[in-house]
Amino acid sequence: MAAHVKRGDRVAVDGGIESTTPDLTPAEYRATVNQLFHQHNRALVNFLLTRVRSKAEAMDLAQEAYVRLLQLDHPAAIGFLRGYLFRIAANLSVDSMRARIPRERAAVELFEELGDSDEIEHRAILHEEFDVVCAALKQLPPKCQRAFLLHVVEGYSHTETARAVGCNERMVRYHISRALAHCRKELAQLSKHMELPKHDAES
Amino acid sequence: MTPNPESQAREDARRKAAADWLQRLDDPALPEADLQAWLHWHGESEQNRKAFEEMQTLYRQLRDLPGDYRRELRRRFEHTDPLRPQPWPKLWALAATVLLAVAVAGGAWWLQVSDPSTVAYAAPPDRHRTIKLADGSSLVLAQDSLALVRFTRHARSLTIERGEAYFEVRHEPDRPFEVQAAAVRVTAVGTAFNVARTNGRVTVTVTEGAVDVVQLSRPGAAENSSARLAPSQHQRLNMGERLVLGDALAQSDPTQSGAELAWTNGQIQFVDAPLSQVVRTVSPYARGRIMIDDPRVADLTYSGTVFRDRVDEWAMALPAIFPVRTVALSDGSVALVLGTEAATVK
What we know:
The complex is a heterodimer.
Chain A: H1 26-49, H2 55-70, H3 81-92, H4 105-117, H5 127-138, H6 142-153, H7 158-165, H8 169-193
Chain B: H1 5-25, H2 32-44, H3 46-63, H4 67-77, H5 89-106, H6 108-113, E1 118-122, E2 129-132, E3 138-141, E4 146-151, E5 156-168, E6 177-181, E7 184-188, E8 192-198, E9 201-208, E10 210-216, E11 231-238, E12 242-245, E13 250-253, E14 267-274, H7 275-282, E15 290-292, H8 295-298, E16 301-307, H9 311-317, E17 324-328, E18 334-338
Parallel strand pairs in B: 5-6, 15-18
Antiparallel strand pairs in B: 1-4, 2-3, 3-5, 4-5, 5-8, 6-7, 7-10, 8-9, 9-12, 10-11, 12-13, 14-16, 17-18
Helix pairs in contact in B: 1-3, 2-3
């Protein structure tokens, strides 16, 4: 379904929520939002993690997005709640807005639950893994290596990387994706041979 | 477990998709359709979710690589010297010129700091620039700004010569991180903050942690004769607070911050602003006019970011956020009207 959606189009949300539910009572609305959260909280935190530094921060922002969704003045467009939820979260992830995050008890509780069940691992890289990553990168074309290292390790923006490597931004993204996927693949091989924290995607 | 070639290919494709998504999702102006497509993919299977999370873990591990690994990586690949300002040859000439000019004008004080360990960073007129410093701190220079950085064993001294910069400071108790802008000195206490130097004023905004701000008295007009500068104002600024210092007295404005840092991405940021005000602010960047007649639409509260080069897309996406719809008028402008039904001509 999503593949056919153009920018600016409105999209109805799946997951059992009606796209045209005019007047919900506050309690019904709250329940709807709750349901939305239980369906998408992992996606929301994963999404936020691409934009902030830490899991704790991602969870803070997800909570705040939930609170804002509950405080929505015009909750008529229930069908767009999911999109709205992610949009709020994206906006909140802008660094400078982080300072003013109020807490609501209900949201905190909801996320304590999430924290227990879906802990997203973030640990420092191991020696062995580091060596595997280096070896994997060495197998890639020089431009690909360089784009990857400049962007991921040195923190160059896509634009800066493109300029430094001498290609366009689309190619930079392609190089980085390719390098990431390749490193991940080699790491998956490693974890089969060693007693490492499980990264097993094949099951 | 020996994977057969078919499942191997499937896993390869899955990893590639996960890496692609990771690349695309951090786009601050991610199109709605891409988000929806990602949610679809993410929701499709547990393997997809795991692949994404693993990819993210790897990405973050490499991004937050400890210093010794980072150095080892640079040694093994020699991909770059991160502090070498290769991309900006022209600006470097400019920075050098400015530095020289200041050195002449500033007299003794400048001769003292103009040793080889001082590095000047300039951002071009049209975009900001992120710089990682040797101690792990980072600074984002706003468009058309110039900063000088000098690290010694006992101090980390930075000067905003022109413009504005945002700092994220690595805590080092024995080596204070000090930023000077005109006659204002800001000392970080492990933190993130912004210093702007505009029209004779210096604005300090703290987004994380705390800083100490000292306004140095300036005898006569000799702005740079810091040998005689003495602390006259001292104030602790905490998270979310902002301090504006003029030529004379400091005016504290410890109320709101946030919206001030929007320049870091060529974007305009709003916090709980009426939609009418938002539209007024961003309209100059739109191709056509954006109009609101209905006060119920005008009073909707918007928090978020608008990219100057994507105002039209932003306006078209409003119906995804608010119970409004867009009506294209014949003169190329767009009207925002209350209601979620498909657009009908009045």
